[in-house]
Amino acid sequence: MIKKGIVLAAGKGSRLFPLTLAIPKEMIRVGVKPAIEHAINVLKAGGVSDILIIVGRNKEAIFNYLGSGKRLGVQISYRIQEELLGTADATYYGKDFVQNEDFALIYGDNYLKPYNVMKEVVKVHEESNADATLVLSLVKDPRQHGIVKIDKEGWITRMIEKPTLSEARPFRHNRKYLSIAGLMILKPIIFRYIKKTKPGKNGEIWLTDTLELMRRDGKRVRGFIFNGERYDIGTLESLIEADKLEYKNFKK
User: Fold this and answer.
1) Cβ of 200: how many Cβ atoms within 10 Å?
2) What average pLDDT values come out for the chain (252 residues) when binned by 10 residues?
3) pTM value > 0.85
4) Which of 5, 18, 197, 239 could form a disulfide with 233 if both were Cys (CB 3.0 to 4.6 A apart)?
5) Which domains does the chain have, with CATH numbers?
6) At a CB cut-off of 8 Å and minimum separation 6, what does 184 contact?
């Protein structure tokens, strides 16, 4: 069982300015709940009960809403990412929290439905004895995503972060692209590879690059293609679509 989870919630949310000048993007509501509460519900659905949230600026809004996590039925603690140096750097703040356990990681601005996809991901991770299991979703435009290639058995054979269209061409999958959907199960060996990861585009240390280092070193990185609904609410367009879906489900 996966008991520990990390939520990344330290980004600037620059694509949602001026909304995110007031509150973190993870606190923007999708339906009646902030995005970060939806992310926590995904982790809960898979059995995660102990959660570390990596926060940045405007951290008080997240603290004040989630508190200890008791209201949501989980235990929550917090770490502050001192400098915004990328998703891999943010993940490394969880090293002492994770210790020697496999753990789940989710981006706090990620909206996934149904929540119980987490149970399936955990099962695939454990049965395949993977070093990392990444939830994947199909996208039309690869340029704002980490994208992957997979083989017939579901193992990832290559990854790249935010490619140009020409860089992405070899990754095409049924006229779309398989993007890393912001939810994954990881073994603690990930922290060793984060330390080896060099800054990539925009000078940030990307988790996609860390996972690709692992894969090239012979570690087993599994893909799980998600057929449900997934939105990265980091853009206004995605936020509106996720909000429509959530209200539709809420009224049922």
Assistant:
1) 17
2) 94 69 84 93 96 87 94 96 91 96 95 94 96 95 92 95 92 91 96 95 89 97 94 82 79 52
3) yes
4) 239
5) 4-251 (3.90.550.10)
6) 104, 105, 106, 132, 133, 134, 135
